[in-house]
Design goal:
Number of helices: 5
Radius of gyration: 17 Å
Number of strands: 7
CATH superfamily: Response regulator
Helix content: 25-40%
Oligomer: single chain
Number of domains: 1
Amino acid sequence: MCALAVPFDFTPVDPCENSYVAIGRVRYNDAAPMPTLLIVDDDATVRGMLYDLFSDRYECNTASSADEAFQYMEVEHYDAIITDIAMPGITGVELLKRVQLRDEATPVILISGKGSEHDNQSLLALGAFAYVTKPFSLDEIEQVVERAVTRK
């Protein structure tokens, strides 16, 4: 029989393997918790694609609106946030501003299908970590997220 030291509020999957299913952050054996990523986009296809791309390396939550994202941010701190700019209701720019008020160290990556060089400069001036235009390559968004998480 294996002796377990169960970290935090994790539920053992197999007591002899020391593998855990996390209620909060994912943790395997004595490894550090996975970085957290919040993906906010009203387009379910984009949300799903980004979740599939990042969920093996990051603990991901997805939100279809800024209001839903705010609910997640009440209970979890994120190492990075990816948000679409153009969403019904509260926009990604407003989400960026609220994140900046809450914790300006949290990198916010803005994505949008509409853009110009002027938009890029003004968004970076507001505190965005990066501005990525759709369509983007998977390599491009992976590199931006990795830089954001390691910068923090």
